[in-house]
């Protein structure tokens, strides 16, 4: 049966370029075979995109070096094979390849993203365009396919989304942390205001009591401001970068910087740090805050200890081949088992240096680093706080430019002091 | 001669404690404050206390445990909870155990007055 398109009635306007080995035939530009060759070389040499042709049933009839690089097959291995082999089993079962070709035919283009399978079985995230190719009479003769490996871009987007989610979570966490603390001075202010009003309405008016109530209101106002400032300092730090961190280095520097506190409180600091402790990936200042907080709490726990020596022990060790643990132990009175969970709900420790970090925030920081902070105690012989963090993987390294940190971010949540007065 | 009711306030947070103290005093009651449930339980005013106003979350015994301790010692003292960490679970817990009121910090004056009036009536 003769088809119009097939009877190659050669005119001056269509000329077939000689086949070179397994190269697919290209329709040459009018009167310009050299342009055709040039074009073939161009397509062939593009390495970032897989550009190849399918016949109308989906079998591969051309290949370029980009295709070889991205998909892993050499030209000899792939010519004549059906392009559905690049799809995952699941996608093949769902009929995705056929649907793609159909859409390209009816709509004029198929564009999509999805997992594709390389020759070695590994998968990559592909960005795909399929265009139908028609001959002069409008008959479909095949498809042009362009595929790009965008696995990296997808991972970067996923990470960006995670960081965005983190920021949202952190805004919630910050509000959750500040709100209960501010409720206390607010109670003083509101109850004190009502009290002052009543005192002044009494017959005779209780002026002294009203004065005292009003003074309490002013103090509470200042206290509220302190709380907010404290949180600003905590969450608007300049250094938000994540980097490879040596926990031993941090422990040593914190212990050293606290030598006066140890002396003042008659505490003997001991360390038992595993040499060459694997690095973790995270925010150095936040991890330092956590370690300081745990040590301060330990010192405080031993305040009343007089029947035995006050010993603070900090240990560091690898855990389960993929994690790193830091343990802070004290020789204080310990913590009742039923109280162990409750201690993590103290958001603010006001006892040291004005605005210290509470255990709740320490836990939040460790959570955001992908780790866990726990406490254990038998209620008699001291308490032990430990956090476990995943080891830094081979390819997590300091990248150029600052990354959003695990907790907080720059000014969009908490402006730095002195800057945005409208926030106040 | 009926004595002016004595209200005992238990709260580890000084600001909240002082604020509630001033307000209850301005309402005409006698007030005494404690910075912990333990201090209150060790005091000599339990029997005389007409009503207890207590915080929920405190280091040491918390508000619910204070409520338990009072009941197990045979005291029927009405208790009003005022907390910065209010949630439904804690609220039901407290009310189920017989609390007269469960308020969120900062609370509305009228709400506290209502609870106090109810507490005193129940004596």
Description:
The complex is a heterodimer of chains A (424) and B (123). Chain A has eleven helices and 13 strands. Chain A is of the alpha+beta class. In chain A, strands 6-8-9-13-12 form a five-stranded mixed sheet. A four-stranded antiparallel sheet of chain A has the order 1-4-3-2, sandwiched between helices. In chain A, strands 5-7 form a two-stranded antiparallel sheet. Chain B has a single domain (6-121), classed as Rossmann fold (3-Layer(aba) Sandwich), CATH 3.40.50.2300. A five-stranded parallel sheet of chain B has the order 2-1-3-4-5, sandwiched between helices. Chain B is globular. Classes of the chains: A alpha+beta (424), B alpha/beta (123). At the A-B interface, helix 6 and helix 7 of A face helix 1 of B.
Task: Name the descriptors.
A: 424 residues, alpha+beta, 11 helices, disordered C terminus, B: 123 residues, alpha/beta, Rossmann fold, five-stranded parallel sheet, 5 helices
- The dominant shape of chain B is globular
Question: Briefly, what CATH class of chain B?
Answer: Alpha Beta
Spatial separation of the terminal alpha carbons of chain B: 15 Å
Give me the count of strands of chain A.
Answer: 13
Offer a quick outline of the entry:
The complex is a heterodimer of chains A (424) and B (123). Chain A has 424 residues and is α+β, with helices and mostly antiparallel strands.
What secondary-structure arrangement, pairings included, does this model have?
The complex is a heterodimer of chains A (424) and B (123).
Chain A: H1 33-45, E1 50-55, H2 65-71, H3 75-78, H4 89-93, H5 96-107, E2 110-117, E3 123-134, E4 140-149, H6 151-201, H7 207-235, E5 243-245, H8 247-257, H9 259-264, E6 268-273, E7 280-282, H10 284-301, E8 311-319, E9 323-330, E10 348-349, E11 356-357, H11 359-368, E12 372-377, E13 383-390
Parallel strand pairs in A: 6-8
Antiparallel strand pairs in A: 1-4, 2-3, 3-4, 5-7, 8-9, 9-13, 10-11, 12-13
Chain B: E1 6-10, H1 14-26, E2 30-34, H2 37-42, E3 51-54, H3 63-72, E4 79-83, H4 88-96, E5 101-104, H5 109-121
Parallel strand pairs in B: 1-2, 1-3, 3-4, 4-5
């Amino acid at each position: 049966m003769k088809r119009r398109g097939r009877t190659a009635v050669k005119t001056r306007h269509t000329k077939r370029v000689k086949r070179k080995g397994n190269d697919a035939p290209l329709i040459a530009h009018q009167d310009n075979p050299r342009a055709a060759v040039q074009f073939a070389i161009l397509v062939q040499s593009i390495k970032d995109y897989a550009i190849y042709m399918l016949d109308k049933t989906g079998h591969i009839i051309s290949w370029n070096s980009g295709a070889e690089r991205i998909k892993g097959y050499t030209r000899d291995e792939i010519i004549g094979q059906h392009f559905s082999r690049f799809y995952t089993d699941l996608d093949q079962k769902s009929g995705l390849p056929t649907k793609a070709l159909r859409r390209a035919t009816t709509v004029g283009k198929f564009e999509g993203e999805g997992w594709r399978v390389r020759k070695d079985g590994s998968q990559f995230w592909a960005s795909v365009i399929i265009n139908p190719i028609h001959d002069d009479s409008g008959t479909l003769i095949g498809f042009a396919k362009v595929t790009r490996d965008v696995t990296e871009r997808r991972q970067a987007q996923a990470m960006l989304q995670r960081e965005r989610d983190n920021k949202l979570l952190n805004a919630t966490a910050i509000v959750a942390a500040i709100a209960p603390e501010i409720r206390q001075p607010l109670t003083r202010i509101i109850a004190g205001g009502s009290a002052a009003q009543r005192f002044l309405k009494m017959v005779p008016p209780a002026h002294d009591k009203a004065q005292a109530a009003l003074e309490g209101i002013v103090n509470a106002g200042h206290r509220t401001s302190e709380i907010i400032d404290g949180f600003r300092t905590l969450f608007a730090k300049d250094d938000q970068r994540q980097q490879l961190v040596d926990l031993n280095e941090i422990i040593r520097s914190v212990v050293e910087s606290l030598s006066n506190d140890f002396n003042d409180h008659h505490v003997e600091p001991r360390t038992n740090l595993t040499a060459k402790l694997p690095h973790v990936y995270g925010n150095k200042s936040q991890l330092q805050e956590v370690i300081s907080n745990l040590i301060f709490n330990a010192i405080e726990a031993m305040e009343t200890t007089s029947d035995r020596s006050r010993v603070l022990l900090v240990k560091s060790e690898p855990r389960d081949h993929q994690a790193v643990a830091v343990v802070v132990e004290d020789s204080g009175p310990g913590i009742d088992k039923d109280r162990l969970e409750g201690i993590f709900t103290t958001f603010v420790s006001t006892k040291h240096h004005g605005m210290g970090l509470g255990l709740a925030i320490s836990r939040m920081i460790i959570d955001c680093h992908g780790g866990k902070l726990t406490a254990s105690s038998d209620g008699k012989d001291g308490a032990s706080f430990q956090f476990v963090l995943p080891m830094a993987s081979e390819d997590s390294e300091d990248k150029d430019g600052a990354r959003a940190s695990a907790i907080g971010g720059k000014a969009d949540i908490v402006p730095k002091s002195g800057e945005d007065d409208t926030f106040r | 001669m009926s004595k002016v009711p004595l209200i005992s306030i238990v709260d580890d947070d000084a600001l909240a404690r002082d604020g509630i103290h001033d307000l209850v005093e301005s309402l005409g009651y006698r007030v005494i404050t404690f910075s912990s449930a333990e201090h209150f339980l060790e005091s000599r005013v339990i029997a005389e206390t007409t009503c207890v106003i207590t915080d929920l979350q405190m280091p040491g015994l918390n508000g619910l445990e204070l409520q338990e301790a009072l009941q197990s010692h045979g005291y029927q003292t009405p208790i009003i909870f005022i907390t910065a960490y209010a949630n439904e679970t804690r609220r039901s817990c407290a009310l189920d155990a017989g609390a007269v009121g469960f308020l969120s910090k900062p609370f509305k004056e009228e709400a506290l007055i209502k609870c106090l009036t109810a507490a005193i009536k129940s004596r």
